Amino acid sequence: MSLPAYRAADPVRTYYAFRGGWAFFAGLAFTLSMVYFVKDVGLSPLQMVLVGTVLEIACFAFEIPTGIVADLYSRRLSVIIGFMLIGAGLLLQGLIPAFLAVLIAQLLWGLGYTFTSGADQAWITDEVGEEEVGKVFVRAQQIDLASKIGGTVVAGLLGLVSLSLPMKLSGIGVILMAGVLAVVMREDNFHPTPKAERETFRNMSETFKAGLAVARTRAVVRNLALISLISGLSSEAFDRLWSVKILTGFSFPTVFGTSDPAVWFTVLALVGTFLSLVASLLVNKISPDRMSAQHPSGLLAVLSVFQVAGVIGFAQAGHLWLALAAMWVCRIAETIAYPVESAWLNRNVDSRSRATVISMVSQSNAIGQVIGGPPLGALAGRTSLRTALVVSGLILTPIPPLYLRVSRSRPRRGGGRGRT
Predict the structure, then answer these.
(1) Is 416 a member of any domain?
(2) Which positions fall inside the Major facilitator superfamily (MFS) profile domain (predicted)?
């Protein structure tokens, strides 16, 4: 499904461009989304978690089917469809400040996310090769962070006018970005099943079975799926409730004549993103070998310890700046770990089922969030936010030992067919 050469762009530049574009629009949409949910939509802590649960149910339901479709038909097409749906969901969420509309929007952009999840990584891995993709992932993460800063600044300025305005413009922007990708995104190294040989359901079944076999037999993939599940059990509550604690548990100081939450949440997002970018650049500069190591289990174990400490520290903090420091420690560790883990997973998956396996790992996280989110949200309502957040941190404690136990078996190489 390659585009004519006169319209096609370099794959790496295209990947950097749409990762950066999505990061900008995500910063625009999500910087003030929690404030919007609390202030304009009026969601309770349990409703906040349920919003995320609906999103994860959509991811759970569609992650593997959309991954299989991308493995059989086109990764490029999967990415384009995904961004169209994500944009539509964001636009709806901003247009109608009601709980039901927000839930429907989660379904839309959750479905869109599953089309991009795995497909973007599988696409660029095939286009540049398994040996080079680790560097691309790290650089893309840094571009993401820099672009997110721009989106965050714009969100803060627009939020002074209306909390929903950044979300509406983000939805429109993502839809337009999908249109641009339809023109410039090339796909040279993916070979879909010929139409004459395509038996859709049988091929989908075979691709799923191949992906499942990889997930079951390769220690790295199996352990990363389990880690993703545990992370999901914890993350839904923390991701949704940290903003509630900040908004209800602390008073913002007045700076430049304002204590408006829109201003402060923009500042907090900027500081967090800037710190994550600096940390990523420093680690990549000081220890590039660890960032692209074939078996980065030690580095990931250390980073996961920081994540556990950050979540529990945030839960226990009684002072605004201590809480923020703990949260930023957690976010920095996540930022550094993500491209390292992504490259590690991609190196251990054959091209033929790469997107399907990545989708399976992502689905493990969605399952965890669906299972863990509502009970922790209910716990917050029955006891306190602090209790729910502490439990959220304790759930993460098995992750460091799991990283360390991953077998150092040599990753298998695979060619053939492959599939944000």
Answers:
(1) no
(2) 1-410
